[in-house]
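Figure 6 in text form: structure in, sequence out.
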């Protein structure tokens, strides 16, 4: 796999681990790290057209969203993002059966975009909370 792709996915996923999990506790941190592992395998499967691995890791990541560690992401302030992420995963799993690398790439990009949108939201919310606490003094 191209080093730039690894670096890009590593950056996005690491940002996610720090951005969301840092404020949510060890269980969500574990889930975010597991999400990173599956995401890396999914990227590798898309790039190499390994349809079996794509199906396996997409399904595993979908299951992860039903785990107790994912629960904080089902709270109302995150629900929109979590639901969109799960829908993008379901679409990726669906297109993986078509064995079409173009469709798989587009679906994978949608999954990554959903991650980034949520992590951006969490980071902005955290900044706003910090700014609010500074003005409360």
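Output sequence:
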């Amino acid at each position: 796999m191209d080093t730039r792709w690894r670096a890009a996915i590593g950056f996005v996923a690491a940002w996610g681990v720090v951005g969301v999990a840092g404020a949510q506790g060890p269980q969500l941190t574990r889930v975010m790290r597991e999400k990173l592992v599956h995401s890396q395998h999914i990227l590798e499967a898309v790039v190499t057209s390994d349809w079996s691995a794509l199906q396996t890791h997409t399904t595993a990541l979908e299951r992860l969203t039903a785990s107790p560690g994912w629960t904080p992401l089902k709270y109302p302030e995150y629900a929109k993002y979590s639901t969109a992420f799960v829908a993008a995963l379901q679409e990726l799993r669906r297109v993986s059966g078509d064995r079409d690398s173009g469709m798989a790439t587009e679906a994978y990009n949608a999954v990554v975009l959903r991650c980034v949108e949520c992590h951006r939201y969490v980071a902005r919310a955290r900044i706003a909370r910090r700014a609010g606490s500074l003005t409360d003094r």
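Caption detail: Residues 39 and 57 are 8 Å apart (CA to CA).
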